[in-house]
Amino acid sequence: MTPLEEVTAALRATLGADRVVTDRQELRTYECDGLAHHRVVPGLVVLPRDARECALTVRACARAGVPFVARGSGTGLSGGALPHAEGVLVVTSKMRDIVELAPRDERAVVEPGVINLHVTKAAAAHGYYYAPDPSSQQICSIGGNVAENSGGAHCLKYGFTANHVLGAQIVTPDGDLVELGGRAPDTPGYDLLGAFVGSEGTLGIATRVTVRLTRLPESVRTLLAAFPTTDEAGAATSAIIAAGVVPAAIEMMDALAIEAAEAAVACGYPRGAGAVLIVELDGPAAEVAAQFAQVTAMCEENGAFELRIAGDEAERALFWKGRKSAFAAVGRISPDYIVQDGVIPRTALPEVLRRIGEVSRAHGVRVANVFHAGDGNLHPLVLFDAATDGETDRAETVSGAIIDLCIEYGGSITGEHGVGTDKAKYMPRMFTGDDLETMHLLRCAFDPAGLANPGKVFPTPRLCGEVPRRHAATDPPAAAEIF
Amino acid sequence: MRRRTAGSDDHVAGVPARYVAAPASTGEAAEVLGAAAADELAVVIRGGGTKLEWGLPPRRLDLIVDTHRLTGVVEHAAGDLITVVRAGTALAALDFGPQRLALESPLPGATVGGALAANTSGPRRLLHGTARDLVIGMTVVRPDGTVTRSGGKVVKNVAGYDLGKLFTGAYGTLGLITECAFRLHPVAPAGAVVLREADGPEVGPLLAAIRAEQVVPSAVELDRPGPGPATIAVLLEGTAEGVRERAARLEKVLGGTTGDLPPWWGAYPWAPGGTGVKLTAALSRVPELLAAAPEVPVRGSAGAGVLYAAPTGDVPRTVELLRAAAVRAGGHAVVLTAPPEVRDAVDMWGPVPGLDLMRRVKDRFDPGHRFAPGRFVGGI
């Protein structure tokens, strides 16, 4: 028997055949996540029903030396859940219980397969919501959010998943269940939870997550402002931040992104706009009213030619519809596209956009820009037609050049989509060999055998080696020898 | 760099050092730690020296690495709301004009690096989070002298492991923090404090009432100086109009009054040399921490589930009571600092989940167990 066959037999016996998928056709449905041009059919799919089954699965893998990859809803955009051909794909979609809703403690305890938006829906009746809101929030899972440290439009004010996860039960790569963090803040010891969130499945699998619930804001006001070009929209953004206003969100779309959104969802944005900003303020009504007047004035002062204020929830939803559907909408104006995710210091926005324009023209590849302008998180959409000779390569070149720009301006190769399979190759451009080796020390502490989601995050396979033997204290040297 | 033979003041919780080195840059720090590694020296990092009596004494100590020359603001990008600061800089010395680093130290003289290493927090943690939420990048010299960076200078960044969180609260057991990037927050144009005196049974309902109102306080602090009533102080910050309206609403809901920041605001309740205990609980169960030892002075960020207690008298017995209550309430009781006789008699850290994984992390980062040996949880 191969190691994978051993695991398959063991899990059939311990968990039951209904937890295990071996049919080739069925396995194929798991061959990719949201990064669809990377495909690998998993060796085996396991669908555990609870933490115990998840731990048994991982333990079986550990015993046989078989790699495992965790997958939530499969919406990730960096290939973090790309399966391993000789490995096990642990799918958490059957672990969908909201275990506990404790609004009095402003906490909820959920299983990893629970859908992001379902937490908010469950909490809303109590006057609370779950703040991190990736665009995929209607289908993405909390476990996936934890793995990727997912952000969203509102993380400008409210932070990312890492700021909203207070505790997690995890399965370590040995197959042990361990509690990290908890319901109360500041658990003593190393902040392993902080390191685990965003580790992209390379340190284990979260089987139960304690999240912070946030009190619903008393007032939400949303503004759509149309500008002649992205320069004016960028200047308005800078003015808002400089005035000390922290909106819940500031989103920008350029002309090409607007064109795509109109084609797809007819969001009815102002005609002739070279850029639109969506600015959302939330909080106590009196604060929002005062700041909204400021923001409106700053948009006008910086050249907005049309301002629309959402009069009700339906209108607000329409503003957001264009933005939230932008990625998919690009499919209407281009047969193929790459969703890029990079970060720059917000103040460099106008300059970087100009440089992206130059790169785009130089290669004859169109780039639509959608981004979280408030925090400098760019999502350039690189458009191409794979059927045309050489276009795919040119698009890849442009996409890579954008990442280089992000690094050049002191930003990051990923703001929220993660490194995964897609960006491991860029890691050495952002970090030194020593930086990566240090990250790898943490990985080795959790997973010395390297079985948890191998091939992700780190650019080259690394071995852990034994922990060096501890030295006994020897006779102390004289002071002169030390330095 | 400067180095010298240790003097009589160069000890950590009573354990004398033999040498002191004061590097003035990350590069110099790497040289010092590389040399210390070659000679297998036991190392403790010292910043402002305000928390050297915290934790347990080091099992052994050769070298104190002092950060007092590792100071200054490297960068303040106001338009990007970020700063990069060297670790030896005093928190109180940071001035970002219309912006602030929302990392407040209860101890005057504390440095950035010390506040991170011990993971201290102040009242504004309720709105802005703790060090782990504010640090966006970190430069660390590992025990073997390797310089390593994680994170970056932009707030939104998920490239690689977020090691800044691992080094935060690690008590200097994994390396020397030399430089940190932080996110900043704008200083609000107006503020108000709503105060309410409360007897024990009132505290829970009042804290719940504050949470239920949509007034978004920056801080909800509580002080109970001893047997008798406590004072709850709520800090509201924002625009002048907004703060006025929110304060008026909260006054009404709580039956409180608007006043000034009380003198106890943001300070620990214990005197230097006394015993200080950090208590945490699930938010709704904070009152149980108060009830566990009604005679003990308690103060802290009640709205965030964190209180600090200053037990006197039969301290080990009180710690036991407080710990039992904290654990029942979903939290922990950590004795942050205590005089030697108490330190020897109590379990300073209490139960810590995940200790095995923590030891494995320590083994990888500091295989010789030379950095602050024995000062941290589980003898790490």
UniProtKB/TrEMBL annotation, chain A:
Q: Which Gene3D superfamilies match?
A: 3.30.465.10, 3.30.70.2740, Vanillyl-alcohol Oxidase, Chain A, domain 4
Q: Which UniProt keywords apply?
A: FAD, Flavoprotein, Oxidoreductase
Q: Which InterPro entries match?
A: FAD-bd_oxidored_4_C, FAD-bd_PCMH, FAD-bd_PCMH-like_sf, FAD-bd_PCMH_sub2, FAD-linked_Oxase-like_C, FAD-linked_OxidoTrans_Type4, Oxid_FAD_bind_N, Vanillyl_alc_oxidase_C-sub2
One GO MF term on file is: FAD binding
Q: Which PROSITE patterns match?
A: FAD_PCMH
Task: Kindly list the cofactors needed.
Answer: FAD
Domain FAD-binding PCMH-type: residue ranges: 38-216
Name by which UniProt lists this protein: Glycolate oxidase
Q: Which species is this record about? A: Pseudosporangium ferrugineum
Per the UniProt record, the lineage of the source organism begins with:
Bacteria, Bacillati, Actinomycetota, Actinomycetes, Micromonosporales
Automatic annotation (TrEMBL), chain B:
**What region holds the FAD-binding PCMH-type domain?**
12-187
Q: Which UniProt keywords apply?
A: FAD, Flavoprotein
A Pfam family that the UniProt record links to this protein: FAD_binding_4
Residue span of the signal peptide, if any? none
Q: Which InterPro entries match?
A: FAD-bd_PCMH, FAD-bd_PCMH-like_sf, FAD-bd_PCMH_sub2, FAD-linked_Oxase-like_C, Oxid_FAD_bind_N
Tree of life domain = Bacteria
The UniProt GO MF terms for this protein read:
catalytic activity; FAD binding
**PANTHER family reported for this sequence:** D-LACTATE DEHYDROGENASE, GLYCOLATE OXIDASE SUBUNIT GLCE
Q: What is this protein called?
A: Glycolate oxidase FAD binding subunit
Organism this protein belongs to: Pseudosporangium ferrugineum
